[in-house]
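I am sending you the entry underneath: sequence plus fold tokens. Let me know what the token row says about the fold:
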Amino acid sequence: MRKYTKKEINSLTMAVASGRTIAAWCAEKEIPADYVTQWLGAYPEFAARVNGAKNSTDQIQESLMVKKKTGRPKGSGSKYTPDREDRIIAWIESGKPLAEWARNEGLSVRIIYDWMAERESFASRFARARDIGYDAIAQQCMDIADTPQMGLTQTYEDGTVVSAREEDMVQHRKLQIDTRKWLLARWSPKKYSDRVVHAGDEDAPLTVVIAPPDAGL
């Protein structure tokens, strides 16, 4: 757990004092609500400032929608629903990262993996969605390669712009493609890696066949 910054505590206390919920602040700043829960428990000075802005610890807990279950704090907004499962599957199939979806919902990725651990069908759907998502990312590579991205290239001399021209940002597009290719090669090496396998593995074991001398090989 990282410690909060001075900027974060100032921003949060101002938000709470203005009547906003801590959950809304977390969503805006893309900070997991679990972080704030941990800061409240670990740093008395943090809790005191937030408590002073909200006037009571009970109100702080309510704004975070925190309840204790199995010894671990969870927000009431962390409940599994079939609709959330469907939206997660659609999101992953589009090639987008799970962490981004979780931030948008004010959840931690760990909670989503807990849902899958408790629901075998969800875990199976998620695994398949991952494979579909990899294909979506591969398609992104093709789209980026086929679509020029125009930008302004400037030439400087002694800190002064001496020329400027609009051109296709080829190196930028190359970086976008190479990054996706690098990730795909590690996430799904059998499908997207450039590595050539000369040895067997579980899925494609080597078979040694000893032919008789008169086999004509």
User: Anything to note?
Assistant: The chain has three domains: 6-69, 82-132, 140-192. Confidence is low (pLDDT under 50) at residues 56-76. The CA atoms of residues 9 and 46 lie 7 Å apart.
